[in-house]
From TrEMBL:
The lineage of its organism: Eukaryota, Viridiplantae, Streptophyta, Embryophyta, Tracheophyta. It catalyses: N(6)-dimethylallyladenine + A + H2O = 3-methyl-2-butenal + adenine + AH2. Gene3D superfamilies: 3.30.465.10, FAD-linked oxidases, C-terminal domain, Uridine Diphospho-n-acetylenolpyruvylglucosamine Reductase, domain 2. The keyword Oxidoreductase applies. This is cytokinin dehydrogenase. InterPro entries: Cytok_DH_C_sf, Cytokinin_DH_FAD/cytokin-bd, FAD-bd_PCMH, FAD-bd_PCMH-like_sf, FAD-bd_PCMH_sub1, FAD-bd_PCMH_sub2, FAD-linked_Oxase-like_C, FAD-linked_Oxidoreductases_BP.
Length: 526
């Protein structure tokens, strides 16, 4: 076969790949006339100059920095497979991390001295410009792992359809959230996003390009879901769809008493059948603390005229608990939805007079965090450090957590200004064969401290996070971290608990040279 490169492109390609190879101490000679055609092609998609590797060296967290040697901009999954094959077959392999939208907060999508794969570069190049194909008859969408959930929403809404399980924020990639779990107020009823996948295409750490599902290559399927990027790179996921509602009734209720708040939450999530029309469509909860306004960057909800009375309530109690629920409706149900919501609210123990409602379009509701993001961006406050801590707490210990952490550490330190989420979900909606790790109890809470900090103040939040972890260890609260980050192998083994052996075995099976997602620091934390 004769290769025809334009001279400058050919020259650049050789230059880049030779440089990457030499930086990575790869000694294999480059034979461009034969089997390394793919490598040369690959080289044209690698950036190695310092300005180009600035972005994959950072993430939304703004705390960790790790420079890769190169940033790959694939135009098709085959480019990713070629890169993995290149590393896998080399005497000195290098780490490879898929970077979705880089919204990790602890360097999970980084690859120090390795290659980061810019998944988003495929978003507009693949499948004739679309990485989202909707099957109206079979009610699913085939979605590239690089796609953002907001684009999945928009593409499926065109057909009056939508996925059922979401994250609060939609500018995250499908591959990125499926590598964790993908949770939000729908999880109690539909399970996390990882419970809503029919099949996937995955490139393993051995460069095998496989389709997997519960029936085909099932070990890989379950490994990858919640697998922290350890077993393969997701290039396509098949997501089930349902008819999309048109609008939502969105209600917030305030509580000064934690026990009433959690009792009501638990009662509401006990109705959770996928087809149960009386079940809620969404349930979350959060803390309101003294920070000048009951709203925060994630949401502007409360009518301005009610701010003073909410603020004085917060001042009186230190913390107010806010329960947030939603019921969908469409043309068929618009006359009955208010009555249904009334029935849901009957018997709830919120503070009389502290109930607030909104009626908004379905898309506006799902994309509710976006306006806060744009506002922060316009003020230069989006790209700041985010020392986040996300935990799963068993139901039986959530009251101890409230007393020791919310009413103890958090109030005492008095530095928390961002959103703090707390809401329950049902274990039965998760599939234990998947890699994601959750507490053992049937009901557990997610607690998210979503701090934004100044560039020189993030350490105070880190100290608070450490205090919280220490408190839980000391008092025996059996938490699991969500979006986990640990620095020692012992901590990871403890995190996975009874799943560790399977997790490790799957790693040897699908990524035996430990190439993938080194930024998670699970198998390469020395
Ligand atoms: P990245 O940060 O780019 O990657 C995350 C990990 O996945 C890395 O290890 C990476 O190597 C791996 N990875 C990326 N793409 C692939 C792929 N295609 N195949 C295999 N591995 C891959 N999470 C929730 O569950 N619910 C929420 O409501 C929620 N809200 C959030 C709001 C904000 C503002 C932010 C910043 C994060 C939020 N998250 C939420 C967390 C988020 O889901 C995770 O951080 C997720 O990993 C981010 O997706 P990403 O595309 O940016 O992934």
């Amino acid at each position: 076969m004769v290769m025809s490169f334009q001279f400058p492109a050919y020259f650049t390609a050789i230059f880049i790949i030779t440089r990457v190879m030499s930086i990575m101490k790869i000694s294999k000679p480059l034979d461009v006339h034969h089997k390394d055609i793919r490598a040369v092609d690959l080289a044209t998609k690698l950036s190695v100059d310092p300005s180009a590797i600035e972005s994959p060296s950072r993430d939304f967290g703004g705390i960790v920095k790790a420079e890769p040697e190169a940033f790959l901009h694939p135009s098709a999954p085959q480019d990713i497979a070629a890169l993995i094959k290149f590393s896998y077959s080399n005497s000195v392999p290098f780490g490879i991390a898929a970077k979705g939208h880089g919204h990790s907060v602890r360097g999970q999508a980084m690859a120090e001295n390795g290659v980061v794969v810019d998944m988003r570069s495929m978003a507009n190049k693949r499948r004739n410009g679309t990485g989202i194909r909707v099957s109206i008859d079979r009610l699913y969408a085939d979605v590239g792992g690089e796609q953002l959930w907001i684009d999945v929403l928009n593409a499926t809404l065109e057909y009056g359809l939508a996925p059922v399980s979401w994250t609060d924020y939609l500018y995250l990639t499908v591959g990125g959230t499926l590598s964790n779990a993908g949770i939000s107020g729908q999880t109690f009823r539909y399970g996390p996003q990882i419970s809503n996948v029919l099949e996937m295409d995955v490139i393993t750490g051995k460069a095998d390009f496989l389709t997997c599902s519960p029936r085909m290559n099932s070990e890989l399927f379950y490994a990858v879901l919640g697998g922290l990027g350890q077993f393969g790179i997701i290039t396509r996921a098949r997501i089930p769809l349902q008819p999309a509602p048109k609008r939502v009734k969105w209600v917030r209720l305030l509580y000064d008493d934690f026990s009433s708040f959690t009792k009501d939450q638990e009662l509401l999530i006990s109705k959770n059948g996928r087809k149960d029309k009386s079940a809620l469509d969404y349930l979350e909860g959060s803390l309101l603390m003294d920070q000048g306004s009951p709203d925060n960057w994630r949401s502007s909800f409360f009518p301005y005229k009610d701010h003073p009375k909410i603020i004085s309530l917060i001042t009186k109690h230190g913390i107010i608990y806010c329960l947030e629920i939603v019921k969908h409706y469409d043309d068929r149900t618009k006359h009955t939805v208010d009555k249904e919501m009334e029935q849901v609210l009957q018997g709830m123990n919120y503070m009389p007079g502290f109930i607030f409602g909104k009626d908004v379009g379905y898309e506006e509701f799902l994309n509710r965090v976006r306006s806060g993001e744009l506002k922060l961006k316009s003020q230069g406050l989006w790209d700041v450090p985010h020392p986040w801590l996300n935990l799963f707490i068993p139901k039986s210990q959530i009251s101890d957590f409230n007393n020791g952490v919310f009413r103890g550490i958090v109030l005492e330190r008095n530095i928390t200004t961002g959103p703090v989420l707390v809401y329950p979900m049902n274990r039965q909606k998760w599939d234990d064969r998947m890699s994601a790790v959750i507490p053992d109890e049937e009901i557990f809470y997610t607690v998210g401290f979503l701090h934004s900090s100044g560039f020189d103040t993030w350490k105070a939040f880190e100290d608070q996070n450490k205090d919280i972890m220490r408190f839980c260890n000391k008092t025996g609260i059996m938490l699991k971290q969500y979006l986990p980050h640990y620095s020692t192998k012992e901590e990871w083994v403890h995190h996975f608990g009874s799943k560790w052996k399977v997790f490790q075995h799957r790693k040897y099976q699908f990524d035996p040279r430990m190439l993938l997602s080194p930024g998670q620091r699970i198998f390469n934390n020395n």
